[in-house]
Amino acid sequence: MTTVDVAEAFEGLYGSAPEGVWAAPGRVNLIGEHTDYNDGFVMPFALPHTAVAAVSRRTDGVLRLHSSDVEGGVVELGIDALTPESDKNWTAYPAGVVWALRDAGHTAVSAGADIHLTSTVPTGAGLSSSAALEVVVALALNDLYELGLERWQLARLCQRAENVYVGAPTGIMDQTASACCEQGHALFLDTRDLSQQQIPFDLAAEGMRLLVVDTQVKHSHSEGEYGKRRAGCERGAELLDVDALRDVAYENLGAALAGLADAGADDEVRRLVRHVVTEDHRVERVVTLLKSGGDTRAIGPVLTEGHASLRDDFQVSCPELDLVVEAAVEAGALGARMTGGGFGGSAIVLVEAEDAERVGKAVEEAFAAAGFVPPRVFAAVPSAGARRVG
Ligand code: GLA
């Protein structure tokens, strides 16, 4: 679907051409999982898959929403009446952004908008399709209403839309990735202050590929489990008397775990703490390796180690994700891990370019042998963040 197609669809729906068209990508996370709500480090990059929005301003306080990906027609909402956690449909994401902008004092958006959306980011695959929807709407309204907000501020407002309006207790990674990533780079993000470094990540130039394997397992029940992990991490931080688990230095992990045992913390809290502290350290190791100008292949084992930690300590994997990693590594992948929140969704696999097809096939065969639904495998290159496209 081209920009022209999206603009034409808008005109067909609303009777006049849109004022503009914007795109915002989904993401994969290279390393740094379940660290963002612990003030830690993450390292996502943008996918070529995007949510695209054609948008025009209105003057009557009405928000009209349409998606070509969902059955049903145009949904009309009064901006004054937008209420957190009142909408269980896809419309909660764009409406939540309008609510969050307005709630933060950017009242110009109260005038309203007509929005037509379409997306190529797979939904329920752990690739941030919802963040892409939020960010594309936020960027469009920021441009049209001349709000003057910076990318990281848009990401924060989109996170607020998701946390408060939609009611999902997620961190800041996905929205920041969609808003701030740059083509050819992974984004090293400190989620405490949102300071960022764009790290060149051109696998093709080094003869490698990164495969994304969508297990097609929709992460059902993930919200409750996600919230439980988050609460467990907060409990750990409280027992250790730190603001967030980010403040536990890797060098002090042994002492921290012993301290937790003395304080009567259960095994689960200790496992959660161990994952977060070692995962932050893995992000730092990957950044050091990528910045050293040495062989990028060395990050492979760090990715696989991260998967083991998510599976055993954080316990957010599932049999399908574990099988991707196991089959890929056995077939000669350099490294593999689940990406995103877990409980289904996608894994990433780092491979030599010449092995890409063979490793992908090995994963598909392992799925068939296990009786799992066939996975969707594609190669991903670090792509551009959110932008105006028309
Ligand atoms: C989901 C959340 C993110 C992050 C990841 C796990 O994608 O939206 O904020 O917590 O899970 O790293």
Strand-residue proportion: 15-25%
Strand order of the largest sheet: 5-4-6-3-1-13
- The residue ranges in which pLDDT falls below 50 over 5 or more consecutive positions are none
Q: Name the hetero compounds present.
A: alpha-D-galactopyranose
Q: Rg, please?
A: 21 Å
The chain-level structural class is: alpha+beta
Q: Write the CATH fold name of one domain.
A: Ribosomal Protein S5, domain 2
Coarse morphology: globular
What sequence of helices (H) and strands (E) makes up the elements?
HEEEEEHEHHHEEEHHHHHEEHEE
Kindly state the mean pLDDT as a whole number? 97
CATH class placement of one domain: Alpha Beta
Oligomeric nature of the chains? single chain
Q: N- to C-terminal separation?
A: 13 Å
Fraction of residues in H or I helices? 40-55%
Largest sheet: 6 strands, mixed
Specify the number of helices: 11
CATH-defined architecture of one domain: 2-Layer Sandwich
Number of strands: 13
